[in-house]
Predict the 3D structure of the following.
Amino acid sequence: MADKKIYLSSPTMHGEEQEFIKEAFDTNWVAPLGPNVNAFEKELADYVGISHASALSAGTAAIHLALRILGVGEGDVVFVSSLTFSATCNPIVYEKGTPVFIDSETDTWNMDPEALKKAFEKYPNPKAVIVVHLYGTPAKLDEIMEICAEHNVPLIEDAAESLGSTYKGKHTGTFGKIGIYSFNGNKIITTSGGGMLVSEDEEITRKATFLATQARDAARHYQHSQIGYNYRMSNITAGIGRGQLLHLEEHKARKKAIYEQYKEGFADIPEISLNPLNKEGDANCWLTGMIIKEGCPVTPDEVMDALAEHNIESRPVWKPMHLQPVFAECDFITAKGSRMEAPEVKDVAADVFHRGLCLPSDIKNTEEDMKLIIDIVRKCFGR
């Protein structure tokens, strides 16, 4: 008999989701607008403590609209974290902008403020900065915001992985000019697929909703003065989101408990460290990552293969964007400067990618599941 499948991070439904969906069916609100959409926007905004929100079809759509609203166009430089999923930076290219990738620091694996300073030295007039809160851990927001303010450049927070995380008591996604969240199926809460753009500026979210509904002008006939998109969230999927949001805090608590179980389970193995957490924040621990000590003969692939033999899902750390073939011509900035001037400089993002992996972080994991995972990993290190 095959081993039970243990997932990296799968959806967890509770029942309230179906009630909101049923209400949408019963009232015939089966469209990309409606009461669930409006309520989800308000409830999410209230949860994170921000004034305005626009519910969209994906986190990628939210980043795209954020860039569009900030006026990113052909040739405009946008600074963006390198250690991330491609959805963070692809929208820059949608608008014919130029991504310049910023290295990570070792304290949180997020954008390095020192590298960001170096980027401004070489490119003094970027159109925007996109910072990612990797795996739910808040970036060094004080330093990053100070640098952006000094240069009068707007900050976009990609909080796709960090809904529920806080930095000095304030929710990630609410620090920058614009914040975005993702509700993809593997996120801490899901709408199956969806995203949210948030801002304190009502004009920004109003414009986002306008552009997301094909930029239809306020005319009786169908009139369009701008190019728009079909990016609005469905009233059905918003119903899932409303039900999920009711359980976000318990999801976060379980994710944090999983991180602590791994920390305890590997405490006596000096070759293993977990992804570092920001001491000034409270991470949602969406995914627990581990990194293998430099020089250790055990590789991330060996650990992932050992888990896969037992039908346990894990995955590599994101391959940094500056290492992706599609972005080979883009600049990459470390704390030492540009790779174009010093290509031999070792960078943190690549090092984390080569030595790291993501462990199963599904909140439905039982104690038996966690013991099995930890035992398999320990055996890889001869324990």
Notes: The mean pLDDT is 97. The two ends are 27 Å apart (CA to CA).
